[in-house]
Amino acid sequence: MFDQYRDPLLRYSVSFGVPVPDGEEIVQEVFLSLFRHLQLGRSRQNLRGWIFRVAHNLTLKQRYANKRLPAATQEDADIAAQRTDPRPNPEDACSDAQRQQRLLAVVRALPDVDQSCLRMRAEGLHYREIAGALGISLGSVSMSIARSLGKLIRADQG
Predict the structure, then answer these.
(1) CB of 52 closer than 8 Å to CB of 123
(2) C-alpha span between 58 and 30 (Å, rounded)
(3) CA proximity to 64, closest of 28, 17, 110, 108
(4) 20-39 vs 2-14: helix axis angle to the nearest 10?
(5) Is the pTM of this model over 0.85?
(6) How many CB atoms lie within 10 A of CB 56?
(7) Domains of the chain
(8) Backbone torsions φ then ψ of 63, nearest 5 degrees
(9) Quick one: pLDDT band at residue 25, thresholds 50, 70, 90?
(10) Is there a contact between 66 and 26 (Cβ–Cβ < 8 Å)?
(11) CA–CA separation, 36 and 83 (whole Å)
(12) Can you tell me the mean pLDDT for 76-88?
């Protein structure tokens, strides 16, 4: 599971503005918590949603402890991108930079719940898993994602 979820959890944590080293610590804490959870014989249902919920909570705690702004620094984003999602073609990366900045500005302007829903969905979680991880209704998740995607589509077309 660590190999499968390390990079998505790191991206998720860094997207909240924590530095990459703190994100790596959070990922380690998530899997330590998972080990304890399983060792105590607790539920094995929806472990993916469970680990993202733990990562979410630990990231918010770390962000509060760091007293940082929600947006990661460009250096942290560059390091995370190099480690987790290297681009095969540098020309494509250059041509997409302006579009990416515009869309990131839209995402950063979204309310925290909408950002969290969008991030978790981007990591492949299902609506039910997102609802469980954030403690909101399934309908709220659906509306949040639809509203967020609408804003992103309008920004991309404009």
Answers:
(1) yes
(2) 8
(3) 17
(4) 130
(5) no
(6) 21
(7) 1-86 (1.10.1740), 90-158 (1.10.10.10)
(8) -60, -40
(9) very high
(10) no
(11) 28
(12) 57
